[in-house]
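Re: [ENG-882] Designed sequences occasionally contain unexpected residues at chain ends

Forwarding the minimal case from QA. C-alpha cells:
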C-alpha cells in the first residue's frame, strides 16, 4: 500500500527508507519557488522529488545510490503527472558532484542522521540511515559544488529528543 498525496501516489516498499514524518515535514516546509533546476539528494522512492515537482515548474534530478530504491523512484516518477520533468540518477552524490557540470538553483536532501549508533544487519538500510557512506561534511561539500551561486539548500536534521530542524540556506 502506497501513500496518496494531492496529485500523486508513491510506493515505498522497495526503498531502503520508508516514507516518514521527517521527509513529509521537509517536503512541506521547503519551497523551491520559481526556479529552473532542482536536485533531490538521496531520493529513495522519490517522494521529495515529486513534492518539489508538485510545488514548482522546475526540472528535477533525483540522485540515489541504492539500485532498488532508484528503481522504485523510476516507477513512481513514471506514474506521476511530472514524468517529463523528473530524471532519476543512479550514482553516489560525492562522485556525481565531481564530474557533472550541472548547477542547481535548489537542492533538497533528507540525509542520513545516525553516526556511531547501532546498525541494522541489512547493509542497504545502513547506507540510508547512517553517515558512514555520506557524512554531513561530504554532503555539504557535494552541495557546495552542485549549488548555483544564488542557489538554496533545504535539509532537515535531528538532535537529541527527536527535535527536528529545517534549514533553508542560500549559497550567496
Amino acid at each position: 500500500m502506497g501513500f496518496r498525496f494531492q496529485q500523486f501516489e508513491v510506493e515505498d516498499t522497495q526503498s531502503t527508507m520508508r516514507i516518514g514524518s521527517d521527509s513529509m515535514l521537509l517536503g512541506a516546509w521547503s519551497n523551491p519557488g520559481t526556479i529552473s533546476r532542482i536536485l533531490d539528494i538521496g531520493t529513495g522512492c522519490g517522494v521529495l522529488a515529486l513534492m518539489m515537482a508538485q510545488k514548482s515548474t522546475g526540472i528535477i534530478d533525483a540522485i540515489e545510490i541504492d539500485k532498488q530504491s532508484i528503481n522504485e523512484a523510476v516507477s513512481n516518477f513514471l506514474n506521476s503527472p511530472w514524468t517529463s520533468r523528473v530524471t532519476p540518477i543512479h550514482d553516489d552524490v560525492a562522485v556525481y558532484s565531481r564530474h557533472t557540470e550541472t548547477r542547481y538553483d535548489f537542492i533538497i536532501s533528507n540525509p542520513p542522521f545516525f553516526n556511531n549508533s547501532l546498525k541494522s544487519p541489512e547493509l542497504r538500510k545502513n547506507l540510508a540511515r547512517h553517515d558512514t557512506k555520506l557524512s554531513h561534511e561530504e554532503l555539504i561539500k557535494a552541495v557546495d559544488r552542485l549549488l548555483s551561486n544564488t542557489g538554496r539548500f533545504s535539509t532537515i536534521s535531528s538532535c537529541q529528543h527527536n527535535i527536528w530542524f529545517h534549514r533553508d540556506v542560500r549559497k550567496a
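QA comment: On inspection the terminal residues look reasonable. Residues 160-164 have pLDDT under 50 and may be disordered. Proposing we downgrade this to a documentation issue.
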